[in-house]
Design brief:
Distance between the termini: 6 Å
CATH architecture of one domain: 2-Layer Sandwich
Bound molecules: iron/sulfur cluster
Shape: globular
Structural class: alpha/beta
CATH topology of one domain: Alpha-Beta Plaits
Helix content: 25-40%
Oligomer: single chain
Strand order of the largest sheet: 6-5-8-9
Length: about 450
């Protein structure tokens, strides 16, 4: 397994702020001594990267130290932002090589939370919504196709919603757990392997998009899949690990070639001289850039649950859902539950945000003290908008403000989109009509579903 998160031994002061936030006790060391990450325990959530405040400075580390660290981390010479002791390994060089190679088709997809984060790196207020500028910026970088992982989030709902209904009807394993957060999946595999059958077999939107890009996408765009270099822009440091899991090759090759974080997209835009805030509003490319409000809210805690309920309700009852905004599953609390009436069934749902909050919930489920049909878990404090790969916040008071502003911007985008339910996405309907045929069908099982490992340590 390649290293995703690391601590620079020369920069770490041993303040142990990261130790306090780590959800899986993966940071080891004595106080005031450089800390080390135990890779067999790290779930790669990147929250230590967000928290660390010890950076390279001329006063402490001498002239030339900044350039040396920047080079060692594979960052371009245009990067001038502070470089901290805790960091994620960057793959920008691979993307630059692909963009410069005329024989390579570079196709990019970005996650919902990126569009409420990226503008902050260019000095815009916290939580500025920049969906159109994001599409334009990716195009200016020279990507041949500018698709959107939100399209695949709508497909995820078609599959995961159908899977939940199937489990409810056929005595399947319940509660079903969401599986789109790879740090949560790894946490469960490491700590509760006996519960892994609760995880939805539906892949995450990133991996669904990856598998579709090199099959359906290649077919519709008349492109040789072997020529496609698929790049994913994520608010998350764990998505690089997810894309490298050995099972994520259902298209016949690696489904997602490389992942950049929102921060690294900022570096790339600056390297190429793209004046992000002056860009016009543009659209993502069709068909794999078409998305609904339900897909957009995957970026916030409770969003996957709400998106699944919007579709599940209508698939089960055949009636329009009375209120598209399902406020009962929203909010900042680390664990919340709701009873949702779906036809004759009272669906018991739970939402966990922040991986530190999940242990008591899993223990209660195991002890039979808690009864649920469906549980959403997101590792980061308020879902992906607060991910380890989002723009770095330096001042402590900015954390809560940024979380709130990015969450609100996500809901604004949802409300403004013309289609707000995944099953009504016209491009997703076309995908099922012309390629997948039906949710949970043969092609879906081959490309869009996966299984989980009882021992991820032996797995890599
Ligand atoms: S990435 Fe997350 S799990 Fe890994 S050391 Fe940092 S805080 Fe802990
Ligand atoms: S990695 Fe950063 S937050 Fe963690 S102990 Fe070192 S200096 Fe402190």
């Amino acid at each position: 397994m390649s290293v995703v998160i690391a601590i620079d031994q020369d920069l770490c002061t041993g303040c142990q702020e990261c130790t306090k936030i780590c959800p899986n006790l993966a940071i080891e060391g004595l106080p005031r001594q450089p800390q080390k990450i135990n890779d067999t325990k790290c779930v790669m959530c990147g929250q230590c990267v967000q928290k660390c405040k010890s950076y390279v400075s001329v006063a402490e580390h001498g002239f030339g130290a900044y350039a040396k660290v920047r080079k060692a981390r594979g960052l371009p010479a245009t990067v001038t932002e502070p470089l901290f002791a805790a960091y994620n390994v960057c793959h920008l060089d691979e993307v630059l090589r692909a963009l410069e190679d005329p024989k390579v088709e570079t196709w990019v997809q970005s996650a919902p939370a990126v569009r409420v984060g990226i503008a902050e790196d260019f000095g815009a207020p916290l939580g500025t919504l920049a969906a159109g500028k994001l599409a334009a910026g990716l195009r200016r970088l020279g990507f041949n196709k500018v698709f959107d992982v939100n399209y695949a989030a709508d497909v995820t709902i078609m599959e995961e919603g159908s899977e939940l209904i199937d489990r409810l009807k056929n005595n399947g394993t319940l509660p079903m757990f969401t599986s789109c957060c790879p740090a949560w999946v790894r946490y469960l595999e490491l700590n509760y392997p006996e519960l892994r059958h609760h995880l939805s077999t539906t892949k995450s939107p990133q991996q669904i998009q990856g598998a579709l890009v090199k099959t359906y996408g290649a077919k519709t765009q008349k492109t040789d899949p072997k020529k496609i270099f698929s790049v994913s822009i994520m608010p998350c440091t764990c998505k690089q690990y997810e894309s490298g899991r050995p099972e994520m090759v259902d298209s016949g090759q690696r489904d997602v070639d490389v992942v950049l974080t929102t921060r690294e997209l900022g570096y790339l835009l600056k390297l190429k001289g793209v004046d992000f805030l002056s860009l016009p509003e543009e659209k993502f490319d069709l068909p794999m850039g078409d998305y609904t409000g339900a897909a957009e809210i995957f970026g916030v805690t409770g969003g996957v649950m709400e998106a699944a309920l919007r579709t599940g309700y209508e698939l089960v009852t055949g009636q329009p859902i009375p209120a598209v905004d399902i406020k009962a599953v929203r909010g900042p609390n680390g664990f919340r539950t709701a009873d949702i009436q779906v036809g004759e069934l009272t669906l018991k749902v739970g939402v966990v945000t922040g991986l530190k909050n999940v242990k008591p919930v899993l223990e209660d489920l195991k002890a039979g003290k808690l009864s649920l049909h469906f549980l959403e878990v997101m590792s980061c404090p308020q879902g992906c908008v607060t991910g380890g790969g989002q723009p770095k916040l330096i001042v402590e008071k900015d954390f809560e403000m940024a979380y709130k502003a990015r969450t609100e911007a996500t809901y604004v985008h949802d409300r403004e989109l013309p289609v707000r339910k995944s099953h009504e996405n016209p491009s997703v309907k076309k995908l099922y009509d012309s390629f997948l045929k039906k949710p949970l069908g043969e092609e879906s099982h081959k490309l869009l579903h996966t299984t989980y490992c009882g021992d991820p340590k032996s797995h890599h």
